[in-house]
């Protein structure tokens, strides 16, 4: 997500292992061709170069998470450009807010919800909170901040948000609380295995898994985070608010 904020560990995972990750994510879920996608920010636009979303889609990536906002004063300058191009290319869109716990959660939720207003329709995934820094708050205060942010975003968008985090952060900064286990989890875990885990916070399954920060795919210049959808929220086309899968 935000380079330089989170400690990243280099790892690679063979694509053929991803189907096994799906089977491990949800009990009784049969292995299938994985629903995959990158997540991107301004880092994926070196020198202002565009992402070729048709190439991304043709390489078998069905979705992407795009950074929308951070704190109260940052909008990704490529957010609108990427969202429009993704829509044309048939890539399901997700948008995330990079949390700044030193600032009001309600104000950040309103800021984010206003910026992403245009991507809460067909082909669009639920809102995402990227929580990977504490802002110096102790766990009890950070837990309260997170509840307030999520509740506000859900009231403004009408959709239950996804939480993005990584295990060590949740176990330390959030005191491994299980108060959010009812929210879909997007977990960053570069363990080189065929499934993330053990999961923090009382989550019994994950919805998205960011399994590397050093992926390379057609259409994107340089390294990019890569993710897989587990099926925990049901059919991906339905979860991405689409009447039918893209490309059908």
TrEMBL record:
Any one Gene Ontology BP term: peptidoglycan catabolic process
Signal peptide: 1-30
Keyword annotations: Glycosidase, Hydrolase, Signal
Top-level division of the source organism's lineage: Bacteria
Pfam families xref list: Glyco_hydro_25
InterPro entries: GH (IPR017853), Glyco_hydro_25 (IPR002053), Glyco_hydro_fam25_subgr (IPR018077)
GO-annotated molecular function: lysozyme activity
Family: Belongs to the glycosyl hydrolase 25 family.
Identification of the protein by name: Glycoside hydrolase family 25 protein
Species this chain originates from: Rhodococcus opacus
High-level lineage: Bacteria, Bacillati, Actinomycetota, Actinomycetes, Mycobacteriales
């Amino acid at each position: 997500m935000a380079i330089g904020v989170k400690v990243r560990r280099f790892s690679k995972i063979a694509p053929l292992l991803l189907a096994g990750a799906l089977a491990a994510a949800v009990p009784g879920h049969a292995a299938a061709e994985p629903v995959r996608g990158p997540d991107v920010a301004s880092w994926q636009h070196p020198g202002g170069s565009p992402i070729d979303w048709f190439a991304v889609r043709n390489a078998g990536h069905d979705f992407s998470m795009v950074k929308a906002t951070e704190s109260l004063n940052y909008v990704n300058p490529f957010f609108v450009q990427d969202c429009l191009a993704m829509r044309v290319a048939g890539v399901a869109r997700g948008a995330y807010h990079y949390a700044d716990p030193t600032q009001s959660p309600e104000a950040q939720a309103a800021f984010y919800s206003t910026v992403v207003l245009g991507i809460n329709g067909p082909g669009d995934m639920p809102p995402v909170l990227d929580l990977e820094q504490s802002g110096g708050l102790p766990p009890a205060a950070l837990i309260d901040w997170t509840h307030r942010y999520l509740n506000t975003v859900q009231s403004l968008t009408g959709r239950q948000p996804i939480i993005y985090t990584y295990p060590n952060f949740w176990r330390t900064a959030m005191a491994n609380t299980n108060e959010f286990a009812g929210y879909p989890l997007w977990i960053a875990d570069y363990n080189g295995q065929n499934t993330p885990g053990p999961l923090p916070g009382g989550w019994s399954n994950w919805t998205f898994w960011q399994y590397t920060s050093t992926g390379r795919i057609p259409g994107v210049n340089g390294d990019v985070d890569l993710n897989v959808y587990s099926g925990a929220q049901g059919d991906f086309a339905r979860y991405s608010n689409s009447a039918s899968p893209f490309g059908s």
